[in-house]
Amino acid sequence: MEIEAEMRRKIVASVVAVGFFIALIIGLGVTFGDGATGTGGLALVGAISLFIVAMGALGLWLDG
């Protein structure tokens, strides 16, 4: 089964975006370490929000 170039581009872009999100979450875990402080929680909410906006923008870019 051959994957078209367009679909391959979409897959790679999505995997890179998810990999960046996972690295960001791990980085936050290392930075804020033991115990969830208010700052760490706010950073986590910011990371999740950034991921949602980035995936939406990526979807629009790949669609157009």
Secondary structure layout:
Layout: H1 5-32, H2 38-63
Helix pairs in contact: 1-2
Describe this entry's structure for a reader:
With 64 residues, this protein is mainly α. The protein has one domain. Helices cover 84% and strands 0% of the residues. The protein is built from two helices and no strands. The longest helix has 28 residues, at 5-32. The radius of gyration is 15 Å and the shape is elongated. The model has no long low-confidence stretch (mean pLDDT 90). The chain crosses the membrane at residues 12-30, 42-62. Keywords: Membrane, Transmembrane, Transmembrane helix. InterPro entries: DUF7472. Pfam families: DUF7472.
Q: Provide mean pLDDT, rounded.
A: 90
Strand and helix order: HH
Major sheet description: none
The overall strand count is 0
Sequence stretches where pLDDT stays below 50 over 5 or more residues: none
Count of alpha/pi helices: 2
Task: Please tell me the total number of domains.
Answer: 1
User: What fraction of the residues are assigned to beta strands by DSSP?
Assistant: under 5%
The first-to-last residue Cα distance is: 26 Å
Helix-and-strand structural type: mainly alpha
Instruction: Supply Rg.
Output: 15 Å
What level of helicity do the residues show?
A: over 70%
Choose one word for the global shape.
elongated
Pfam families: DUF7472
Keywords: Membrane, Transmembrane, Transmembrane helix
Transmembrane segments: 12-30, 42-62
